[in-house]
Amino acid sequence: xxxxxxxxxxxxxxxxxxxxxxxxxxxxxxxxxxxxxxxxxxxxxxxxxxxxxxxxxxxxxxxxxxxxxxxxxxxxxxxxxxxxxxxxxxxxxxxxxxxxxxxxxxxxxxxxxxxxxxxxxxxxxxxxxxxxxxxxxxxxxxxxxxxxxxxxxxxxxxxxxxxxxx
Length: 166
Hints:
The structure is a single chain. The protein has a six-stranded antiparallel β-sheet. A two-stranded parallel ribbon has the order 1-10. The chain has one domain: endopeptidase domain like (from Nostoc punctiforme) (endopeptidase fold (from Nostoc punctiforme), Alpha-Beta Complex), CATH 3.90.1720.10. It has helices at about 1-20, 35-45, 65-75, 85, 145-150; strands at about 35, 55-60, 60, 90, 105, 115-120, 125-130, 135-140, 150-155, 160. It contains five helices and ten strands; from the N terminus they run αβαββααβββββαββ. The protein is of the alpha+beta class. Helices cover about 30% and strands about 25% of the residues.
């Protein structure tokens, strides 16, 4: 009886240890098969103009990370819910090497990562802004986005098969 109790404790401790080690990986992007840029563009274009909604994750309204999660989910890639969580995934990409499908991140609050969009090529990104909803903006906009840019991540293998402009 005492041996069973000790064995149960050891198994429980191992299970907890495994959960603690594997839990952070649960929010990682899941891109088991490649996607093409045309799929991403179609998913983004399908909700272009949808209004901004704080906490929104559906075509009834999006916040920035809700829009990105929605678009990537449409092509089979699961991402963390928040822009900060998304920034913790994928591989860093320098600005000059951006490709359609890369996530671009901004500090709009003065407190680190607070906004995310998806790069669509030709120096532009799609995002959901509080003022315009789902729209396209210039990455190097000297009036706002250019100075807020903090980095980019590649979270999936995206084959460049189509221009991302509508």
